[in-house]
Structures are given as C-alpha cells and as structure tokens.
Amino acid sequence: MKGILFTEPNHKATLKRRKVQTRREAILPEGAFGFQIVRKNGVFQYLLAYDENERCEKPGTQQEWIIKPKYNVGEKVFLKEPYLINHVDGNRIGIKLKYSGVTNYINLSLLPYSDDERSEWIIKRTLEQGKSKSGYCNKMFMPEWCANSYIEITGVKAELLQDISHDDCIKEGMYCDNYLYWYNGHDRQKYSSPIKAYATLISRINNHDVWNVNPVMWAYDYKRSK
Fold first, then answer.
1. 205 is in which domain, residue-wise?
2. Residue 50 has pLDDT above 90, yes or no
3. Residues 216 and 224: beta-carbon distance below 8 Å
4. Which of 27, 58, 109, 184 has the most CB atoms lying inside 10 A of its own CB?
C-alpha cells in the first residue's frame, strides 16, 4: 500500500473530514518538455507529455505519451505521520503516532520482518528518535503497519495550479468565519477569498514561488477509509 504525507494541520483536517482534496505537482518524465491537459466537454480526460518538437508520442513508440497519476481512483492509501516506539515487551510493540495522538499496540509476530530484521529495525528506530529534536522518527519513512489512518481516492484530475476553483479550495480545507474572512489552517491571517488563502498555503508548503510558477498539478479527491 502506498503512503501519503501531509503537514500536521492538513493531516488533522483530513481526520476531521474538513479536507477532502490534495494537490501534488505532476513530474515531467525524462525527455519531456511539457504537458498537455486533455479535456472533453470541459472534463479532464488524461495528461500527455510532449517532446521538444511538441509531439505527444512516447519516445521510440507510436503511442500517446500518457502520464499516469501516482494514486488511482479506488486506491486505499495510508497517512504517514511522525511516530515513536514507546513500548516493547516479549509479545508486542507500542507505536505512538504524533498527529493522531494514539498508540497502536501490535503483536510482534505480525510484523513483516524476520526475528533479526525486527530487532535491527527496533534498534535503528530507537536510536533515530533519540537523536531527533522532536523525539519522533521521520514520517517520510513510516511503514504501512504503523499506520492508524487511511483514505480512499475518489477522483483524479490534472490542471494548472492557478486554475483551482472556489469549491476546490474549500475541499482543500479552506474555511470561512461568520465575518466572511477565509483561513487556511496554517497561519492566523485573514483572507478575502479561499483562493488567496490557498495560494499562501501552497506556497508555504512547497516553495515561495510555486503559485507564480503555476505548474501542472494532480488533484486527488478522497474520503476517510478504514
């Protein structure tokens, strides 16, 4: 099963079902110079790459150079988050998850390791969390069996970052107060629209110029799953 990374506020917004969409930059394959977004009647169909001559044929073939998303509709994905080992005995291991605020107790015999591999993994993670300023292991390398939260992909499309709609900004977790100000959940700033709130957020998460660069993004709709 594949995993996915969120910032802590976005992770928690996903758990609360306030955030039900996420965007990830589409990566150009080797030899490609750009993307072409193919739509039919305004509805996204697929994403094509093209070469320096603007041909959308995969090199060495006569097939369309279709770019596939990392996650597909119907796919179940686990949420990665910082974790630490807070209990080990002869039968089970306790994994504390920072964003979820829970500890999972897992039977050692169920771990996908041999006895030697399991001991080595526990030693390495214990050393890692001891050296970490946060006291937790890096979420990027969190294994699936540690996970407590999952999502199911319900929709996929590709579009330019600045083409995000008002409604999609709300799906991305932007929210409004009674005074019609918008917030992105990552700072205390008030914004006049959900798009402005999201533009600040995506630039903060990725890099400060990403909104102006306006790359092609995969937009994934999802829902909480067991």
1. 3-77+150-225
2. yes
3. no
4. 184
